[in-house]
Automatic annotation (TrEMBL):
Protein species of origin: Aquipseudomonas ullengensis
GO molecular function, one term: DNA-binding transcription factor activity
PROSITE patterns with a match to the protein in the record: HTH_LYSR
SUPFAM superfamilies: Periplasmic binding protein-like II (SSF53850), Winged helix' DNA-binding domain (SSF46785)
Assembly and interaction partners: Homodimer.
Segments forming domain HTH lysR-type: 2-58
General function of this protein: Controls the transcription of genes involved in arginine and lysine metabolism.
First and last residue of the signal peptide: none
A Pfam family this chain is assigned to: HTH_1
UniProt key word DNA-binding: yes
Identification of the protein by name: HTH-type transcriptional regulator ArgP
Gene behind this protein: argP
Keywords of the record: DNA-binding, Transcription, Transcription regulation
Family recorded in the similarity comment: Belongs to the LysR transcriptional regulatory family.
Length: 296
């Protein structure tokens, strides 16, 4: 039989990215959390964590974390079916990974009523859409919005639609760098803006334009900051169309190549044995996201 206090310690260390914060969350000493991890490792006969900064789950650790995620969701279903079990139960927190551009655009207006109706608190982990699935694979989250289609073992994926990006820059930047027109040569010399080291949107756009090799870029790991930098003339960048309607209407930003959007498909991943809460959330996303994303 599993000792769920030990599994809760493992989940806390991974989710809180360290023993000290895990101890604070669990109301224990750091030594007590460490002892629970050691006892869990003794029982399974192998390490469940790689002691790094932050600690990372081993393969068996990931399997245990996946189990914990699903048990938490099934417990919520049971509490709903047996009201006596709900007395004194902690408020449910659902840990979800999603890309920053979804968080900056469609996620909040779509999810607000759902969270209120279900008494749900979200613990959001922001990752680039190209790598967000690693959080599911590590057992850290119960669901994920990302660009990867293939789900991890024990999960399923649903195509939500595509987020449409436009390559934008300020008029002053256009005059400075593209006075002679936007070509592979001028693009190769003009600095752009990249969200982070896992963001390859600009790379793919340049490759499609015939630009190969390295190029100059600013790194800006903030969706709102990305737009501000582009508006201030730092560089050009691919921005979600729905995020910059006012900037486009006012002329603060313009397309560097009109009529050449880039659509990025977004998939919702969730555990198959995630209980009614995840099933309801999946139905809610499928029904409502069409207002925000492009059909593919």
């Amino acid at each position: 039989m599993f000792d769920y206090k030990l599994l809760a310690a493992l989940a806390a260390v991974v989710e809180q990215a360290g023993f000290e914060r895990a101890a604070q969350m669990l109301g224990l000493s750091q030594s007590a959390v460490s002892q629970r991890i050691k006892l869990l490792e003794a029982r399974v006969g192998q390490p469940v964590l790689v002691r790094g900064t932050p600690p990372a789950p081993t393969e068996i650790g990931r399997r245990l974390l996946n189990h914990v995620q699903q048990v938490r969701l099934l417990e919520r279903d049971l509490q709903g079916a047996v009201p006596a079990l709900d007395e004194g139960a902690p408020v449910e927190r659902l840990r979800i990974a999603l890309n920053a551009d979804s968080l900056a655009t469609w996620w909040a207006p779509l999810m607000g009523d759902f969270c209120s109706e279900h008494g749900l608190l979200l613990d959001l982990v922001v990752e680039d859409q190209d790598v967000g699935l690693k959080r599911m694979r590590a057992g850290e989250v119960a669901g994920c919005v990302c660009a990867a289609e293939r789900p991890v073992a024990g999960a399923r994926s649903v195509l939500l639609g595509a987020m449409r990006y436009r390559a934008l820059a300020s008029p002053a930047y256009m005059a400075r760098h593209f006075a002679a027109g936007v070509t592979a040569q001028t693009l190769a010399r003009a600095p752009c803006i990249v969200f982070g080291p896992d963001d390859y949107l600009q790379h793919r756009y340049l490759a499609a334009m015939g630009v190969s090799g390295g190029f100059a870029y600013h790194l800006c790991p903030s969706s709102e900051g990305f737009v501000r930098l582009a508006s201030a003339g730092f560089g050009w960048g691919l921005v979600p169309e729905q995020q910059v309607q006012r900037e486009l209407a006012s002329g603060l930003l313009v397309e560097i190549l009109p009529g050449r959007p880039q659509d990025v498909p977004l998939y919702w991943h969730h555990w198959r044995s995630g209980g009614e809460l995840l099933a309801s959330l999946t139905r809610h996303l499928e029904r409502g996201v069409g207002e925000w994303l492009v059909k593919t």
